[in-house]
Amino acid sequence: MACASCSTKDGQPKGCKNNGTCGTDSCNKLTVFDWLANMSLPNGEKPFDWVEVRYKNGRKEYYKNAENLTLSIGDIVATQAKAGHDIGMVTLAGELVRVQMKRKNISDNEEEALKIYRKASQKDIDIWSSARDKEEPMKVRARQFAIDLKLQMKISDIEFQGDASKATFYYTAEERVDFRELIKVFAREFRTRIEMKQVGFRQEASRLGGIGSCGRELCCSTWLTDFRSVSTSAARYQQLSLNPQKLAGQCGKLKCCLNYELDTYLDALKNFPKTDTKIYTEKGTAVCQKTDIFKGHMWYAYEGEWNHWHKITTTQANEIISLNKKNEKIASLEEFASELVEEAKAEFENVVGQDSLTRFDSPKSNNRRKNNKRRNNKNNRSNKKKRKPQNSKNATK
């Protein structure tokens, strides 16, 4: 989805000229579509006076519109902070803010509520943009200071407050880090208030963003807000190879998308018997070797004949197991396996009308045949000429 300034024209992309502050807010991170915007409130109802404000890299906060300002999505506002003020962009207003606050367990208590001061002036925006320009070179220097002090930490991002009075350093670390000396170095070099904030590896990936192995933007940086725990059992249920290089995302943890289809696989596996359940027949005991969740097939092999697998359906496997519980045995698995009709090989039809792959190739010329015929004719003529004088000499004799 792209806003009006990002849309294509004459088949060529125009590119965003607003640098992330477009009015429709559809090309930014973690956007929310206000599907209640066109609905009118019942008579006598006052509109919800809280708004959602987004800051750098998807960080969102909720503020009370105490001054009754006419705010809409995309407005740059000055908000209350612990010290000074901050600058952010309004991403949501109206009744949908109430829904978002309830979902995130944020109370609308007026005593603890932070307020919106005003719409940002041009002076506020200039100070804010100049502070944002300092963040990248500061991050390079801050990483070098941490390396010089031999601290086992990684500074992933820096965010300035809107009035440039405070800088928040986001970092990741495996263990607890004593960064008291580092804060003194930062305060002496950068001449501003310093706040250190540790984030997890998933939060770091969501802030920085990137492209996943699927070719799309990371889910955590575009729409995913809650990070549920992912275990290797999710890969086992989906019969995926336990390769850490393929299962891990850019954060180094297991991919969040492993949980997307897990419930569907668990529902499908309810009809399957447990793989560790053995089947007892008169021929011998069979053990499960493989399952196909999509087609509902299972492969069993007799103990001692591990190279010969017999394919049966899940319903047949459940019937045999139910008979075994009654101390009854079937003759062999071959009886059930023979009933399964093998799938025919796929025959590709000529749906496009292509007769052959070489239909566009130019026909080959028969120059070789012509040259061979010419050579043969020349050899025959030369042989005839050699034979004629020999015949004349024999005639004179």
Automatic annotation (TrEMBL):
Residues 114-199 form the PSP1 C-terminal domain. Coiled coil: none annotated. It comes from the Bacteria. Residues 355-397 are annotated as: Disordered. InterPro entries: PSP1-like, PSP1_C. Residues 366-397 have a biased composition (Basic residues). NCBIfam families: RicT_YaaT_fam. This is Regulatory iron-sulfur-containing complex subunit RicT. It comes from Flavivirga amylovorans. The gene is ricT.
